[in-house]
């Protein structure tokens, strides 16, 4: 195809592109009265309607006033003995009774640039077993502890050891916990597990027979999740970082989930697995199976991992 023909075809597409991206510029006072309200209706009625995106309300109110003395005092608490001791003893939050210690992670010998370039969302999976070693690698390189930072306090006898993980987190607070539904993984039973980064172990939260049908967890569209090995659930605990950061804490939680997702995607593809983020999850069904309250702890993202099948 020559350049002239290609440009001609491209020009013919412009009216459709223009219409799609400008159709919501028009204003309407009828947004509240439509029977089926699409998101574009909400944008149309932005000036007249009382119905707005909750995300818009959040963005208008989530900034942090660094000059406000209350914010400075609150942040300062985390540099005092109580705050630092809390950060140094994250392992106290891990209930290790009946937990499963994962194998020591192995190095993944894949070039980072290749991992980034080859990352793709996969929607077709086939039923193959995943090794416990690969599960261990995936969890460790996503959120595991990879270093120790030592802090000496003048008024405390021993050095404090602060664990550093393979993903960043605002203030090192790590308000996002990884849960996952496991299926056809070597040496562990099917069910929902919680990952404990400090001890690099997992704990069964729900057996397969007590879980809801995994197909009810989200609108998976054309994806058959019956063959995937892992469905990751990212759970944000509002209280962990909102005490320090206030309204902006939730934004930091979403950012952390994004970084965890990127790690899962890069590590999964490096290990030869297919992976795909899932946005259309049914929050209350998943939260019930995870046994979280949906008030302080919230499901904020999902990712599936498995062996890629034929399209």
UniProtKB/TrEMBL annotation:
<dbReference type="GO" id="GO:0016491">
    <property type="term" value="F:oxidoreductase activity"/>
</dbReference>
<dbReference type="InterPro" id="IPR000415">
    <property type="entry name" value="Nitroreductase-like"/>
</dbReference>
<dbReference type="InterPro" id="IPR052544">
    <property type="entry name" value="Bacteriocin_Proc_Enz"/>
</dbReference>
<dbReference type="InterPro" id="IPR029479">
    <property type="entry name" value="Nitroreductase"/>
</dbReference>
<protein>
    <submittedName>
        <fullName>SagB-type dehydrogenase domain-containing protein</fullName>
    </submittedName>
</protein>
<dbReference type="InterPro" id="IPR020051">
    <property type="entry name" value="SagB-type_dehydrogenase"/>
</dbReference>
<dbReference type="Pfam" id="PF00881">
    <property type="entry name" value="Nitroreductase"/>
</dbReference>
<feature type="domain" description="Nitroreductase">
    <location>
        <begin position="117"/>
        <end position="306"/>
    </location>
</feature>
């Amino acid at each position: 195809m020559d350049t002239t023909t290609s440009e001609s075809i491209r020009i013919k597409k412009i009216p459709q592109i223009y219409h799609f991206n400008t159709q919501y510029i028009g204003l309407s006072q009828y947004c509240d009265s439509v029977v089926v309200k699409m998101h574009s209706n909400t944008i149309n009625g932005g000036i007249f309607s009382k119905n707005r995106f909750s995300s818009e309300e959040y963005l208008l109110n989530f900034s942090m006033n660094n000059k406000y003395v209350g914010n400075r005092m609150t942040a300062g608490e985390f540099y005092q003995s109580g705050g630092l001791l809390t950060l140094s003893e994250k392992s106290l939050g891990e209930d290790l009774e009946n937990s499963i210690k994962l194998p020591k992670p192995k190095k993944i010998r894949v070039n980072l640039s290749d991992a980034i370039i080859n990352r793709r969302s996969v929607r077709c999976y086939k039923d193959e077993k995943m090794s416990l070693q690969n599960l261990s690698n995936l969890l460790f390189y996503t959120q595991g502890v990879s270093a120790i930072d030592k802090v000496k306090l003048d008024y405390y006898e021993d050095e404090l050891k602060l664990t550093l993980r393979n993903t960043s987190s605002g203030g090192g607070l790590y308000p996002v916990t990884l849960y996952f539904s496991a299926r056809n993984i070597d040496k562990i039973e099917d069910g929902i597990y919680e990952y404990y980064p400090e001890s690099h172990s997992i704990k069964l939260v729900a057996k397969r027979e007590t879980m809801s049908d995994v197909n009810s967890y989200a609108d998976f569209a054309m994806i058959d999740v019956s063959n995937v090995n892992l469905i990751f659930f990212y759970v944000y605990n509002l209280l962990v970082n909102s005490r320090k950061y206030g309204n902006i804490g939730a934004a930091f939680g979403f950012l952390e989930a994004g970084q965890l997702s990127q790690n899962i995607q890069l590590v999964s593809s490096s290990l030869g697995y297919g992976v795909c983020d899932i946005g259309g999850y049914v929050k209350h069904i998943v939260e019930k199976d995870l046994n979280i309250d949906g008030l302080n702890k919230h499901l904020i993202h999902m990712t599936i991992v498995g062996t890629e099948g034929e399209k």
